[in-house]
Amino acid sequence: MASFKVAAAALLTIGASSAWQTRTSFVPKVIQQSAVKTNAVYQKNAVNRRSSLDMVVSDPTDVGSSRGGMFTASNAESRRVVPEDVRDRPTMKIVYVVLESQYQSSMTAATKRINAGSDNMAVETVGYLLEELRNDETFEQFKKDVADANVFIGSLIFVQELAEKVTEVVEPLRDQLDAVLVFPSMPEVMRLNKVGSFTMKNLGQSKSVVADFMKKKKQDDGSSFEEGMLKLLRTLPKVLKFLPSDKAADARTFMMSFQYWLGGSPENLESLLLMVGQDYVGPVKDAMVGKEKVVMEEPVLLPDKAIWHPVAPDIVFETNDSYFNWYNNEFCPDAGIDPKTAPTVGIILQKSHINTKDDTHYVSLIAELESRGARVVPIYSGGLDFSGPVEEYFKDSMGKSIVDTVINLTGFALVGGPASQDHKKAASVLKGLNVPYMCAVPLVFQSFEEWQASELGLHPIQVALQVSLPEIDGAIEPIIYAGREGATGRSVPLADRVNLLADRAMKWSALRTKPKKDKNIAITIFSFPPDKGNVGTAAYLDVFDSIKAVLKQLKTEGYDVGDAPDSKEAIMEAVLNDPEARINSPELNVAYRMNPDEYYELTPYAKDLEENWGPAPGNLNSDGQNLVIYGKQFGNVFIGVQPSFGYEGDPMRLLFAKSASPHHGFAAYYTFLEKIFKADAVLHFGTHGSLEFMPGKQVGMSGTCYPDRLINSLPSAYLYAANNPSEATIAKRRSYSATVSYLTPPAENAGLYKGLKELKELISSYQGLRENEARGPAIVNSIV
Description:
Layout: H1 2-13, H2 29-44, E1 91-98, H3 102-117, E2 122-129, H4 136-147, E3 151-155, H5 160-173, E4 179-182, H6 187-190, E5 194-195, E6 198-199, H7 209-221, H8 225-234, H9 236-240, H10 245-263, H11 266-280, H12 282-287, E7 305-308, E8 316-317, H13 320-335, E9 344-350, H14 351-355, H15 360-371, E10 375-381, H16 387-393, E11 405-408, H17 423-433, E12 437-439, E13 441-442, H18 448-453, H19 460-473, E14 480-484, E15 491-493, H20 495-513, E16 521-525, H21 543-556, H22 568-576, E17 590-594, H23 596-602, H24 610-613, E18 627-634, E19 637-641, H25 653-656, H26 664-676, E20 681-684, H27 706-711, E21 716-721, H28 725-734, E22 737-742, H29 754-769, H30 775-783
Parallel strand pairs: 1-2, 1-3, 3-4, 9-10, 9-11, 11-12, 13-14, 16-19, 16-20, 20-21, 21-22
Antiparallel strand pairs: 4-5, 5-6, 7-8, 7-10, 14-15, 17-18, 18-19
């Protein structure tokens, strides 16, 4: 689409060379103009960009690519750096284990800088991504590397079974290692810390000063472990006075190491390695006898929380006033964005990606949203609790929300990340915002190639951590938008997914900003069970009576419902004409006839359906010349009938046939809703239709999955029976629907009544007394 091409051009101008892909879409002229101006702004600021935007040229989803992947297909050897020329210097070996690979490029750069410039030491580093340790061969190599290492570094090791693996390897070797640095992780891993005389072996026990501090902060303000560590850094002078003098220097080194690690840049990590090497690694210490130690630069740290923008003149903004003063008055006019009328999208980022300048995937989405005319408020937190920054930056001084939609790009729960979640706190914060909350997912536990080729889609562990947990907070739409480039570990945006994410965020935002009288609402009804002559029914729901109630409420709130009838019978008659209509009945009301030329023009994947259904229009939802859309429009509300699965007599076959696809009539229905009726939202009415069961991946849709293709940019709300959470979850994840539960009606056994009840009692009596010569015949006479 035009805006996507322009935004891509902007990113390419400032160094991004990813293989951007375009999608067919329809962009208002004003948005195209905004995209052109946004491109100019990014070009103008290209020389000021602080982030490294070097990306792979090849298509990251090309399954024929020979590049290594992430985690399940990755290779730690790509993270091994060996000095090319030792030059009689002692060599310090570092082994590190991290959850994600954003530290890979910074650690590699820091190592190479030391090897090129230090006279005191050479450094060998090898890094492992936590999930790689599940692989037996990788785990054996990890053991060998730790066995001859000088320093072990670990961070964010919160998966229990993998924490046990790390402990199994490092604990027996802890005494022979010169230093062990473990930053926020499971307590048993944190207890491995060793910096001179400073340890955390009493962590969780009564004598632990650090644990006491953490416990007090949790009691005072609910701080998570990592938040407690950050507060500990700020109160370091107060903490050190409680430590014995011989431990104070080592404790200070540990805290400085944590600050350098949080800083994340190659410069910070270089200082970390030099400091630990010259003070704690035996061969390096021996070689430096009589030499002057290197004085380290102070850690360069960003504030714990702030607003960040890729082309801002300042690195970050710590207040809304300072950010919007620049953004509204300088950036927006240059980008062609009207700050008074533009929708505002709040974006939640991971600070470590900004620290390490691994932010290309963030930049791509920000540019896409701005090219569509939206304002953005990208925020980050230094820890794993984003509730504070959300409250501070997504609300004005009166506590009113200033954002129309929120996108969480971390892929983690709002409070606690992958460690320990506080869903009650997260839900409270999100309710206070009262806006759509989308949690997009970066590929973490698999490569682009694995995900693209997988029938399951998203890795099961990532489904648990980055789909299920955010859903408990209230998140919707787990759209994959980025992954890792295998050789460097840097983040790479996935072009068509970023585009879809931006489109959907804009549509959700429009629902808050567009006048109600102008909103187009599509209500989709089903035939349940399919192909049984039950058009307009759903499990445990009186569909047309419920639609009557919805229309009444819409009218009360100011929506244009035209001359909608005020009785369910009249609504049913208008839509069906025949109360017993089947899905292929000629009695269904035809709302629109779509000729094949229009269908192929508006439906980019139409040709893919011909393998199963031949050329359009076909035989289903067709009059022989056109594809027909069944339904009835009342003002700006359209009540449409979702087409059948497509396989008469065996509707479930579609779910199990790998090469199956929806028929042309089904595709035409959703094309009509999005591009002809131009629905602002679609309400799927009752349990259940077939959109969410169309062929494609189980979780983590790609652009070739049919639920994704069909719903495309349409915001979807789905009424689902409360007793069917499993299929409601499928609808939420596969068709990007915000599910709304309805209670099943109370019921009990009807039993018999009047004469039938009396007859049953007489028969029961006879069965027990038929051997009784006096009573038996009397009962028979009463029955007869």
